Every structure is written in structure tokens, then in C-alpha cells.
Amino acid sequence: MTSVKTDPPLPFGEETVLFGRRVGGQQAAGYVRLAIALSERLAGNLDAAFDLIDDAYARFREIGDRYGEAYALSQRGHVLRWIAEYEEADRYLQLSAVLRRDLRDKRALAISLSGQALTAASAGAANKARTLGREALAMMEESGDIAGLSVSAVNLATAELLLADLRGALTWLDRALTMFPIPGGHRSLGWLYFIRAHALRQLGDLDGFLASAAEARTRFERLGERRGLIAVQRICKEGLPSLPA
Q: What is the pLDDT of residue 239?
């Protein structure tokens, strides 16, 4: 059984299952397997996730779907990142990026580069993480994709957290927050404020910490997000006795 690495509940983006393009049965089966693989990874069933990704990749290869191949390669890279196999993770994400460059799919390429940035940050390679993360951000800016731009900014914030640069993380978090509301992004908003509260507390800004923690609690209450509410309660017990009413 593959050992499990559990990421913190950060709202950074990896890939999305997009059914906007018309696909045949073989392709659909591959995409569904990748979606299930993500669920298996989140549940800690990493061997099952690898098997599903490999099966999906084989299906895409059989019919020459290079978009699907790139998606499967990136997913394998992210699973490897979770178990701290950073060199191998980067290799698969690079293969995904090469395919996407050839296909001239800038948005998907930006997502692969963001994955490489997170992997580099996890491995402590600060310059590489920042360079790749900003390249991904620039591509999203060129495409005019606000949701993608927000995800790229959040990924840069996450990279800075992994590199222990709290002020850098706050810069990118604040930039991401200026882009809201984003369709479908409301579920991540509470976590963004939660991470912001964590960073501000570590930096000694208690007023900012309280304000961000209160915002996070409000967002989680509206969604009935129990995990988020527990996280806010825990961070406040560690920092200050209570939140303002």
C-alpha cells in the first residue's frame, strides 16, 4: 500500500473535468476514471488512484486523444506530489506541459505549470516555483480567464506558504480575493479567508487575524461547511479566545 500524504485543505487548483468538448464513449470513460481517481486520492486510496489514472491514460493513447493524455499525465504528477515523490511528479507534469504546448492549449498549459510550481515549492525550490507560477499567471491573464487567473494567484499563495514566506502568500491571497465573485468559486472563499487569518496571526497582526477569521466563519456558516467551521474554531482557540459576534 502506498503511503499517504495528506495536504492541508487549501483551495488551490489542479485540474477540472471539463465536458465542454464533444467526446466519444472511450474518451468519456477515461475522463470519468480520472474524476474517480481524484476522489480516491482525497480518500487516501492512492493505489486505486494510480490504477485508474493508468487505465484512463491507456484509453486516451489507444484513440490518440492527446488532450486526454495530458490530463492523465498531470493527474499522475499530482498524486506523486502528494506522496513527496517530487522528482517523478515534476517529470509527469513536464510531460503534460509539453503535450499542451504542442496542442497550443494555453489555459491547460498554465494549469500544468501551476502544478510544477506547487511541486517545486513542496521540494523547497523557491526560484523555480515562483518562475513557473508567474508564467502560469501571465498565461491566464493573456487568455482573459478570470477564474483561471484566480486559481493561478491562489496557487502562487500556496507556493509561498510552502516556502514559509507569509508576506508573499498574503500578497497573492489579496490579489485572488479582489477577483471575486467568480462563478463556482464561492466554496473556496471561506478557505481563502482562513488561510489569510492564519498568515496574519503568524505575523502578529491580531486585528487582521480576527477580521479574516470572522469572514471565514461567515462564509462557512452560509454553506454549512462543518470542516471549515471546525478549522476556524481551532485556529481561534490557538490564537485568541473568541471571535467578535
A: 62
